[in-house]
Amino acid sequence: MTMKSWSGAVGTILIGLSSGAMCQAAELIVLTNQGAVPGVHELAAAFARTSGHKVTVLQEVGAALEQRLNSGPADLITLNPEAMEGLAKKGKVVAGTVTPFTLAGLGVSVRAGAPKPDISTVEAYRATLLAAKSIGYSRGCSGQHVAYLITHPATTEKLKPKVVLTGGGTGPVTFFLARGDFELGIQQTNIMVGAPRTDYVGPLPGFLNKPCPTSVALLGVSKEQGAARAMIRFMASPEAAPLLRKVHQEPAKR
């Protein structure tokens, strides 16, 4: 091989290696729902470290969310099953990519420094709700599960007048609890533990602690589908379990 042809071959190899490295380093955007924020941040950071991809996690609502779903930039979305099904029907997510990855149980919090009530049993929890001056919970999945006892025929007349509903992208229950909008806050434990100016009391007792599931899916507008699919696999892998548990979430049951 002549020196000229050798130089050309080396140049071609270097260009190929450079192009390959550029293709491998993707920038992913994950749109996440409020109930999955802590776990998604943990998984995104771990995936970025191990893969070399950059991962940005956003919690968009309203028009901003619609814009990302319609024209990007966005690659993955996490939602509860009902909301995800709605997106799938609209063709916003790629068929066959919806993957359950986490569960989050429910808990109770009070304002920082307030007495922690007894919620150790179903009856104790019921008594605590009846004694509370006001109760706050969200409109999402956790709110639907919390409402089971509050809207039960045996308690609804006494409890419904005390209820303050949050949601609509305005912030977690603990935000409103901290500023004094109600006395007791109930939502997913992973969002409540460690929230500023609030104290976590504990999980809902027994059958009332029905966890909220969250799935992840590939968005049709994604420009980085290979890397995004790899992240989905990671989010549902055994390696993700300890990261989810670190923020009071559990891996999805399979």
Descriptors:
254 residues; alpha/beta; D-Maltodextrin-Binding Protein, domain 2; 2 domains; six-stranded mixed sheet; five-stranded mixed sheet; 11 helices; elongated
Q: Which geometry do the CA atoms define?
A: elongated
Strand order of the largest sheet: 2-1-3-10-4-11
Write the CATH architecture name of the largest domain.
Answer: 3-Layer(aba) Sandwich
- Category by helix and strand content: alpha/beta
The percent range for strand residues is 15-25%
Can you give the helix content as a percent range?
A: 40-55%
Instruction: Determine the CATH superfamily of the largest domain.
Output: Periplasmic binding protein-like II
Average pLDDT metric: 90
* Count of discrete alpha- or pi-helical segments spanning 4 or more residues: 11
Quote the CATH topology of the largest domain. D-Maltodextrin-Binding Protein, domain 2
Count of all domains: 2
Alpha-carbon Rg, integer: 23 Å
Count the strands? 11
Task: Tell me what the structure shows.
This protein is α/β, with parallel strands linked by helices and 254 residues long. Helices cover 42% and strands 21% of the residues. The chain contains 11 helices and 11 strands. It has a 6-stranded mixed beta sheet with strand order 2-1-3-10-4-11. A 5-stranded mixed beta sheet has the order 7-6-8-5-9.
